[in-house]
């Protein structure tokens, strides 16, 4: 009997380890380092906020559709090959680094060990799924703690956007993907929007339940049916009526997930929040609005009273016209991939009587980011400069990223130099997007001389190819391993082979393993 139990348990666990290693090899073979991009700078900034000393490398991987934390001894973050805004990258890295800090991957391996030991018990497979689910909900709760409703909605937008490409590999069972399936997404979105501060009584009750369940595990070797009931009550709601956050029984309604967007506008003295590319048939209240074309505008249950307000309807019409104009004039893939159809009104604020200058201050202090961006564009140049400087001084990264497009070339240059001097990596990465070639070369040389690796890695990919190759050889000659690790990726196969021979002959083993193709471990 002992053998009948032990051999399957051993085979199941060994199979899981083999599959894990094979998955990592697959991911490595299709991954490209992102250490020389703005994403790496944002990741390091978030790590500093969370007091994580270890440097977690970032890779772009075409075989994963959702950002994930992978690896135990050498953890890394894998990003899908899709366009992500700085604010979205911030949310993604915060989520994944919280997983790292709390050692969630180790917990998942412990659960896998329990599943292997109790392979004969069908409840342990349910336990594994529910533990994964609870792990994600708990991580979301930590990531959004202290955030306003607007910021939680922005975090929810990031979860939605993480499902943009769905043809790749979701990741291994003991990786930590940001979002694994649409059913989990629904529950996580509801949890994000409904999260409340946990009271002391709730904490004590949770501890007592945890102690009781742990004791039951030790005695019985498995979860009781009560654990199932407890797990399913966390952050789950069957009362949510609005389709923009819910699954629908209609399969056609699921198509909106891959092009869903929520944006704020300010028009006709009203703040309007529109979500679009959903199915208008899912809503009871709709209106026809003519804004170039005729749009069917839907209203969620809480907003249906505005369907009879002519001033709000005019504000909605102007907001749609504004979005149409942005779509026609933009070359940004983020805009062109999300052409507006079937707008849904999910928020109305106003009417406001203040001037645009006064509203810019009001929305900044109220952390209403979408409205802030909309009114700041219409405010005076003096107010724009004042608010941009305030966002920088107060280290308000989201507000600064929404307003940096209003800077002139010279103003951008000044802020870029200031961010460099102040060691403000997130601001530096935002400003580098529009930097000219001369400024790139000048700042790149300064970062090399000062050995500011984070800054050098952010701007390196935008340097001309000949400059990238020069930096690779220069870093090798100067013995700067960190710079070489970044610059070596610009070398072709012949140059790599040449440098590998030199490194071997000159005894520079540390450089030898930094040359692409020499290191066989992700």
Describe the structure.
- The protein is an alpha+beta fold and 522 residues long.
- The protein contains 23 helices and 10 strands.
- The strands form 2 sheets. Strands 1-2-4-3-5 form a 5-stranded mixed β-sheet.
- Strand 8 and strand 9 (293-299) form a beta hairpin.
- Helix 2 (38-49) packs antiparallel against helix 19, helix 4 (104-117) packs antiparallel against helix 5 (123-143) and helix 12 (356-365) packs antiparallel against helix 13.
- It is flat and about 75 Å long.
- The two termini are 41 Å apart.
- Mean pLDDT is 74; it is low at 163-176, 178-183, 195-199 and 217-259.
Structural class: alpha+beta
Number of strands: 10
- Strand arrangement within the widest β-sheet reads 1-2-4-3-5
* Largest sheet descriptor: 5 strands, mixed
- Measured between the Cα atoms of the first and last residue, the distance is 41 Å
* Portion of residues within helices: 55-70%
Gyration radius (Cα, Å) is: 26 Å
Q: What is the approximate shape?
A: flat
Beta-strand content estimate:
5-15%
Mean pLDDT: 74
Helix tally equals: 23
Q: pLDDT below 50 for ≥5 consecutive residues: which ranges?
A: 163-176, 178-183, 195-199, 217-259
Characteristic terms for this protein:
10% strand, single chain, alpha+beta, 522 residues
Could you write a compact summary of the structure shown?
Helices cover 56% and strands 10% of the residues. It has 522 residues and is of the alpha+beta class. The longest helix has 28 residues.
Topology:
Layout: H1 2-29, E1 31-33, H2 38-49, E2 58-61, E3 68-70, E4 76-79, H3 86-101, H4 104-117, H5 123-143, H6 149-161, E5 176-177, H7 182-194, H8 200-220, H9 225-233, E6 261-267, E7 270-276, E8 285-291, E9 293-299, H10 310-329, H11 333-336, E10 344-349, H12 356-365, H13 369-376, H14 381-393, H15 397-403, H16 409-421, H17 425-431, H18 437-450, H19 453-460, H20 465-478, H21 481-487, H22 493-506, H23 509-512
Parallel strand pairs: 2-4, 9-10
Antiparallel strand pairs: 1-2, 3-4, 3-5, 6-7, 7-10, 8-9
């Amino acid at each position: 009997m002992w053998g009948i139990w032990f051999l399957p348990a051993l085979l199941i666990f060994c199979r899981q380890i083999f599959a894990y290693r094979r998955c990592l090899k697959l991911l490595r073979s299709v991954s490209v380092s992102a250490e020389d991009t703005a994403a790496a700078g944002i990741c390091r900034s978030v790590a500093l906020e969370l007091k994580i000393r270890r440097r977690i490398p970032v890779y772009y991987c075409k075989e994963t559709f959702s950002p994930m934390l992978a690896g135990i001894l050498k953890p890394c973050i894998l990003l899908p090959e899709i366009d992500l805004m700085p604010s979205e990258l911030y949310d993604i890295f915060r989520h994944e680094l919280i997983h790292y800090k709390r050692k969630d991957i180790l917990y998942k391996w412990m659960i896998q060990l329990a599943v292997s030991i109790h392979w004969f018990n069908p409840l342990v497979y349910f336990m594994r799924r529910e533990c994964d689910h609870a792990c994600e909900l708990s991580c979301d709760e930590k990531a959004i703690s202290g955030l306003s409703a607007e910021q939680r909605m922005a975090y929810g937008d990031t979860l939605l956007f993480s499902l943009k490409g769905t043809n790749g590999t979701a990741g291994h069972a003991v990786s930590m993907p940001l979002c694994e399936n649409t059913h989990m997404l629904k529950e996580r979105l509801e949890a994000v929007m409904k999260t409340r501060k946990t009271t002391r009584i709730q904490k004590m009750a949770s501890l007592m339940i945890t102690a009781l369940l742990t004791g039951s595990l030790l005695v019985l070797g498995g979860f009781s049916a009560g654990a199932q009931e407890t797990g399913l009550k966390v952050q789950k709601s069957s009362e949510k009526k609005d389709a923009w956050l819910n699954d629908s029984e209609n399969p056609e309604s699921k198509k909106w997930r891959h092009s869903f967007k929520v944006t704020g506008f300010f028009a006709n003295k009203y703040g309007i929040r529109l979500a679009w590319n959903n199915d208008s048939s899912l809503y009871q209240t709709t209106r026809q609005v003519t804004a170039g074309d005729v749009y069917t505008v839907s209203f969620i249950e809480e907003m249906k009273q505005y369907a009879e307000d002519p001033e709000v309807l005019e504000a909605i019409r102007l907001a749609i016209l504004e979005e149409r104009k942005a779509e026609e004039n933009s070359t940004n893939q983020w805009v062109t991939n999300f052409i507006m159809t079937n707008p849904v009104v999910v928020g109305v604020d106003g009417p406001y009587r203040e001037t645009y200058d006064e509203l810019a201050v009001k929305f900044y202090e109220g952390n209403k980011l979408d409205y802030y961006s909309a009114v700041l564009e219409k405010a005076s140049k003096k107010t724009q400069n004042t608010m941009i400087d305030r966002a920088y001084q107060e280290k308000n990264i989201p507000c600064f990223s929404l307003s940096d497009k209003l800077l002139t070339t010279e103003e951008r240059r000044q802020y870029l130099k200031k961010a460099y001097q102040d060691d403000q990596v997130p601001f530096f990465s935002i400003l580098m997007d529009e930097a000219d070639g001369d400024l790139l070369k000048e700042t790149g040389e300064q970062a090399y001389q000062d050995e500011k690796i984070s800054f050098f890695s952010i701007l390196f990919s935008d340097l001309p190819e000949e400059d990238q190759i020069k930096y690779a050889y220069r870093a090798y000659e100067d013995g700067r391993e960190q710079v070489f690790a970044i610059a070596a990726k610009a070398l072709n196969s012949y140059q790599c082979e040449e440098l590998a021979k030199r490194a071997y002959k000159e005894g520079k083993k540390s450089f030898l393993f930094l040359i692409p193709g020499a290191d066989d471990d992700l």
